[in-house]
Amino acid sequence: MMSMMSITNVVLLSQSAVYTVSAIVSLCVWIPMSLHLYSFCGHCSLYSTGQYVEEDGSFDPNWSSVFHCVFTLTTAIILFGTAFIQMCRKFILLYRGTDSTFLSAFVDTVLALMATLLVLTDAILVTKGFSVWCQSVAQSCETASSVMVIGKDSDIDPKGFFLELGSVQFGIWSLLVCWVLTLVLASRKLFVYHERENMIVSMARERHRHIGSDYTRLET
């Protein structure tokens, strides 16, 4: 029983650390994507296409739906809030020297699974969308971010979009790693609780069996 308690304490400490990292990494998606939407005047370059105008060399964009960027931004905000709340919960449990219940561990596992699927979907969306946009500028995406002009008489500032979207892409895949690790830790804790419950039930059955056998001997 003591070994199981030590395992759950290690898992709880690991969960606290991973939730902290997840909250920080979420900001690496939230902040760059917010800057990107601001620089592009509310337009989203993910999955956007276009062509260069021969007269002035500017890039005439065919904007995709802003949903792609808003979805990524919303995902980052939701996961930041989730990770922050979970981080606080785990640190409070560590401070009190207690641990979560079986029901809480089950909820943590389901929550981590949902977050992992959400981040995986978003990571694929961002990676593919960034690739489509870079192919559309028809040159080095990093170079284009510093020299291209988007639209005629437009307030859009493309400078730094490569760094912004590159940071989002790095952040979202890093976030996926964090939530996969969170899912593994939550599943491990659930398994430990299940083993502990089975052990308690087995000990109770064994005790009742011995009590029953002792009572039978007394009668005889």
UniProtKB/TrEMBL annotation:
**What membrane topology is annotated for this entry?**
Multi-pass membrane protein
Question: Where is it mainly found?
Answer: membrane
Keyword Transmembrane present in the record's keywords: the answer is yes
- Top-rank taxon of the source lineage equals Eukaryota
User: Which residue spans traverse the membrane?
Assistant: 65-88, 100-120, 168-186
Q: Where in the cell is it found?
A: Membrane
**Alphabetical list of InterPro entries matching this protein:** TMEM179 (IPR029673), TMEM179-179B (IPR059010)
Entry keyword set: Membrane, Transmembrane, Transmembrane helix
Q: Name one Pfam family in it.
A: Claudin_TMEM179-179B
Q: Which family does it belong to?
A: Belongs to the TMEM179 family.
User: What is the official name of this protein in its record?
Assistant: Uncharacterized protein
Source species? Oppiella nova
